[in-house]
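User: My collaborator sent over this chain with a note saying "see what the structure looks like." That's all I know about it. Can you take a look?
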Amino acid sequence: MKTVKKAVIPAAGLGKRLWPVTKTTPKELLPIVTRPSLHLVLEEVQKAKLKEIILIVSPDKKLSMTHLKDFFPEIDFHFIEQKEPLGLGHAVGLAEKAIGEEPFLILLPDVIIDNEVPVATQLIENFQKLGKSMSATMPVAKEEVIYFGVYKLESVQGRLHLAQRVVEKPSPEKAPSNFVVVGRYLFTPAIFPILKQTPPGKNGEIQLADAMDTLAKEGGLYAYEFEGKHFDIGNPVGLLRANLYFGIKEYGKRIYQGLI
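Assistant: Without extra context I'll predict from the sequence alone. Here is the result:
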């Protein structure tokens, strides 16, 4: 079985939920205490021992990302431009040539997950056992499913669930479960031909969740209940929660002592 060596980070989004600040600063570079959020994702990549990163960026973001080589010199960065915001599925599809015939990770930069064993590593370890595509999952409150791709699950093997369906942002009444797709994925190259055949879905965009639905129907997709603390920093509350959590984690003693 081929080992996982590469990761894709889609970073071309407009960050509309955080306007107006993301009009001037890319969402991926907003600070979590003293580090840009993207740096936390790249630290996860480092811990997972991956050396090659494909960054999908919009034309106006590419220049702001060039500093990454100064902070992560051991990572080989490749920049691919997504000229129009045509959806996450479209962004992932742009990486096909750079990925080739290898399994690969996808890490969404507006999802931060803190755990001693990175979620990237957790997915790689499970992939080495199964050889199947998978993504991270977690249960959420029923009213929150409208913000996620949602799984219909079949069998359970510990933290692993065989997926039957993936439904993009359903209403609570139509959601097949409360287990949602979280922004960490590990795919075989089989996802690329599926993406090419996936028509535009919600918002007229090519949705990765729709391609995952096809993969699930073919019996080729698992959902993995990850271990870790999850933050969606693509919205104001999630960004604030992440700053409070990491601020206390890194500077808690000084904060409580009133020194800062």
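A starting point for your reply to your collaborator: The first strand starts at residue 6 and ends at 11.
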